What does this fold into?
Amino acid sequence: MNFDAFITPLDELEDCALCPRNCHANRLAGKTGYCKSDASFNIASICIHRGEEPAISGTDGICNIFFDHCNLQCIYCQNHQISNNSSNRTIHHADLDKVISRITAILDLGINRVGFVSPSHFIPQMKMIINIIQSLGYKPVWVYNTNGYDKPETLRTLEGIIDVYLPDFKYRDSGLARKYSGAGDYPEIAAKALREMYRQKGAALIVDDNHAAESGIIVRHLVLPGHVSNSLHVLKFLSEELSPRIHVSLMAQYYPTKNVENHPKLGRGITETEYLQVVEEMEKLGMFNGWIQEFDSSEFYRPDFDHPHPFE
It folds into this structure.
């Protein structure tokens, strides 16, 4: 099918400042900045994912679109196969026709939600995909699944487009953010991004008859080994600066990838005591909306993006 009538300009990529890196690279001319991404559809995987939060996956799963590369470089990233900006791996879905065909094939199975994973550096391409899918008569719930390193002014352009925000809030400690993710300003930037998402959606999570999210925010936080204090400060911010009623997904799924298996801090999993300390803090803060994970969940969240279905 010819999608020319629905394609929107990618002018923003001529002087790219979509994310807080503000590289000003001319991606239309093939130049790349921090994320090492040009103006094409750099998509590593389009698949059905049933392992997200119950309100995101729903009963049938979500069609997740995983973009290549990232505007953070977390040394412990569980999606390191596709997030590593120095990777030369083959991109599976770089052609727009193939992207749309794959998404609509999944939607035709009865799945009514689409998630964009690590989309911060691909906002124009994401909007184009949304525009085309909607022009074909589909009306899925759109989920923005982000690391939280987003510019508020970019997020404002998504108001009325994105239904559910699914951001990480990784750090309140700038030293950890610098050391582990290459972004010492992450706590400040992510706080502003979360405030903008909250302005758009508020604390309420609107769900359908099957308890699947239709509109709202779910904030994710991954507890890191040896860094309980950082997690406690993250929860304190969410409770005091946003709302104790906001939905939080407190993740216990950390495991040391091969990149950090010998790291003095990150080379082990979290302990049950560490995780329970953070869970108890949630309860003390009156944060009862959201999800906690089974402590052994790290065994079930180990994707392999060399396979067509990374989570199966």
About this structure: The mean pLDDT is 93. The two ends are 31 Å apart (CA to CA). The beta strands are 43-49, 62-67, 113-117, 141-146, 164-167, 206-207, 213-222, 247-251, 290-292.
